[in-house]
């Protein structure tokens, strides 16, 4: 697949990615390579990656526990300490081999160690391929509040190897699909339409869709790296989705939702809000709701749970001057940013979802 060029880096695919990485990782460029993995990617992805990695530089592996619950400053401290103890310096490089947590946290650690060292993202989940590894956002959660601490700084490169997808369970694949669906809804109706017959898609079709999804996000980010304008469109489904995800993270009685599972619910809710604000037709709304519900399991929300989720919106990182800002659909394939929504309409969206 064709290389995608971003502002200050490129996204490489399969063998071209490994060839590019080999040309980057030479002793005159870097003193030591640190590969950041979690328990899953250490077992299922690291052997394949090392078999394809050509370098003479010394390699150290740093392994983290699995899960969003570990995406915090405490884990960063552990990684910073490991980098120091293992001889990391200003000419070290971090290779983030994993999903969204590894991409987000690994990038943040690299950006802040020794005031910033280079890093490369090698995403191993569908979600991280089409979202977390692209665009230069790096950060961690503050308690259960999503992505409150971070920095925007682009990686040295991104390497997409779709063979890693063979290691994923179905729920992780669905989680990544949520971001791909979002890209169609906010930017390209023709792309969205391709998901109407998801069961008919083969592996090659999926690879093409992944490439197109990355291209859509990259086009938006290249226009607005620091999220002052059009990049806010990528937040569709995330204002309520992040609040839902945070609520499930902080409640031990609840089974944690994957990021894409929470965003899928958020997209249905925010599509309803778009409809009620006369931005989206009734037919478009029901099409979105049907397709997303056909892929993802539904969850029932009690009145108390809805209230607690709405309370979490105050912590959304997109808020300005104390007001919650939504990105809403202006028809399928178009978006309106900086939209204010009152709590009564959010309640109605949840009621419709529950129904």
UniProtKB/TrEMBL annotation:
It is an enzyme of class 4 (lyase). One of its GO terms (molecular function) is 3-dehydroquinate synthase activity. Transmembrane segments: none annotated. Residues 176-319 form the 3-dehydroquinate synthase C-terminal domain. Gene3D superfamilies: 3.40.50.1970, Dehydroquinate synthase-like - alpha domain. Residues 62-174 form the 3-dehydroquinate synthase N-terminal domain. Its cofactor is NAD(+); Co(2+). Its EC number is 4.2.3.4. It comes from the Bacteria. Pfam families: DHQ_synthase, DHQS_C. Keywords: Cobalt, Lyase, Metal-binding, NAD, Nucleotide-binding, Zinc. Catalyzes the conversion of 3-deoxy-D-arabino-heptulosonate 7-phosphate (DAHP) to dehydroquinate (DHQ). This is 3-dehydroquinate synthase. It comes from Flavobacterium celericrescens. The lineage of its organism: Bacteria, Pseudomonadati, Bacteroidota, Flavobacteriia, Flavobacteriales. The gene is aroB.
């Amino acid at each position: 697949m064709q290389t995608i060029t971003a502002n200050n880096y490129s996204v490489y695919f399969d063998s071209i990615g490994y060839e590019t990485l080999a040309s980057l990782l030479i002793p005159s460029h870097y003193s030591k390579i640190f590969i950041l993995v979690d328990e899953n990617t250490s077992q299922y992805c690291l052997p394949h990656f090392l078999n394809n990695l050509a370098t003479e530089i010394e390699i150290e592996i740093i392994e983290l526990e699995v899960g969003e619950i570990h995406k915090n400053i405490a884990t960063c401290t552990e990684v910073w300490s490991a980098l120091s103890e293992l001889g990391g310096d200003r000419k070290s490089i971090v290779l983030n081999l994993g999903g969204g947590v590894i991409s987000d946290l690994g990038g943040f650690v690299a950006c802040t160690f020794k005031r910033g060292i280079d890093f490369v993202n090698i995403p191993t989940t569908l979600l991280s391929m089409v979202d977390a590894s692209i665009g230069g956002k790096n950060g961690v959660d503050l308690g259960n509040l999503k992505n409150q601490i971070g920095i925007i700084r682009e990686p040295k490169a991104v390497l997409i190897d779709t063979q890693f997808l063979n290691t994923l369970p179905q729920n992780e694949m669905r989680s990544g699909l949520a971001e791909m669906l979002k890209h169609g809804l906010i930017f390209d109706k023709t792309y969205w339409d391709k998901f109407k017959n998801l069961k008919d898609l083969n592996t090659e079709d999926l690879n093409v869709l992944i490439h197109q999804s990355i291209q859509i996000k990259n086009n938006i980010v290249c226009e607005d790296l620091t999220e002052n304008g059009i990049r806010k469109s990528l937040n569709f489904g995330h204002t309520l989705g992040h609040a839902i995800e945070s609520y499930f993270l902080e409640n031990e009685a609840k089974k944690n939702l994957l990021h894409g599972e929470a965003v899928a619910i958020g997209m249905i809710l925010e599509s309803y809000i778009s409809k009620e604000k006369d931005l989206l037709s009734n037919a478009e709304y029901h099409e979105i709701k049907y397709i997303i519900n056909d892929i993802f399991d539904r969850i029932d929300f009690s009145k108390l749970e809805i209230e607690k989720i709405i309370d979490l919106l105050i912590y959304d990182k997109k808020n300005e001057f104390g007001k919650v800002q939504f990105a809403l659909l202006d028809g399928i394939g178009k978006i309106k940013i900086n939209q204010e929504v009152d709590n009564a309409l959010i309640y109605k969206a949840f009621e419709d979802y529950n129904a």
